[in-house]
Amino acid sequence: xxxxxxxxxxxxxxxxxxxxxxxxxxxxxxxxxxxxxxxxxxxxxxxxxxxxxxxxxxxxxxxxxxxxxxxxxxxxxxxxxxxxxxxxxxxxxxxxxxxxxxxxxxxxxxxxxxxxxxxxxxxxxxxxxxxxxxxxxxxxxxxxxxxxxxxxxxxxxxxxxxxxxxxxxxxxxxxxxxxxxxxxxxxxxxxxxxxxxxxxxxxxxxxxxxxxxxxxxxxxxxxxxxxxxxxxxxxxxxxxxxxxxxxxx
Length: 249
Known about the structure:
Elements: H1 3-9, E1 17-23, H2 25-28, E2 37-43, H3 54-58, E3 74-79, E4 82-87, H4 89-97, H5 101-106, E5 114-117, H6 129-150, H7 168-191, H8 201-209, H9 214-244
Helix pairs in contact: 6-7, 6-9, 7-8, 7-9
C-alpha cells in the first residue's frame, strides 16, 4: 500500500487529499506482515456521505465536546487490510485543539509514515494541560470499560436488535489502547511531544497474549493502569507547577 494505490483503490481525488498519515502498529514499530494499515486522511469535501462525531465520542477517540465539533465531518472505510479514517480539515483541526490523542499522534509519526502533508497542522495544536488531562483520562477510562464489556457481550450495532457475542480479542486491544493512552499523556505532559510511539509495545504484547479471561487481565493489568494513571497525573501537576514558577532574575 502506498499513496497512489490508496487514491486509486478508494477513489480519492488527489487534488482534494491534503494530508495522509500511517498510524497504528506501523507507526508504533510493531507491525507484522499481516498487520493492516491504519490511515488518517485529511481531505476537502468530495461529495461523499459524511458523518458527525457521535461515534468518536462514544468510543473514546475524541473528547465529548459537541460545541467544538459543530459542523464536523468525518467518514470511515473499513476493509480487512485497511482502516481508513477520513476527516475534513476543520474537523481535524478541532480534534487537535481538543487534544484527541489519535489526531495528536499524526504530528509525531516517523517521516516514512507521513505519506502526504500540505497543511500546517502543528499550528492547530498548542498543549493545554487541562484539555490534555480531560482527553487522556476520558479516553483511557472509556477503552478500559469497553474492554470489560467486550469480554461479556457487545451492545447492538446499527439495526441489530440483539447483542453480539463476546469478542475477547478486541477486548484485549481496547485494554492495550487504554494503557497506551496514559503513556502518551505522560510524554506530552513531561516533554510537550510524543517522543516514543513504541513505548507501550512490549506491554501491548503482554496484554494481547494473555491467555486468561477478564478476571486474569484485571489481576495483571489493573495495577499497571493505576500506576500509569498516577504517573500521568503527577506529570500534569509537575508541568503546572513549572508553568507557574517565577522566572529567574
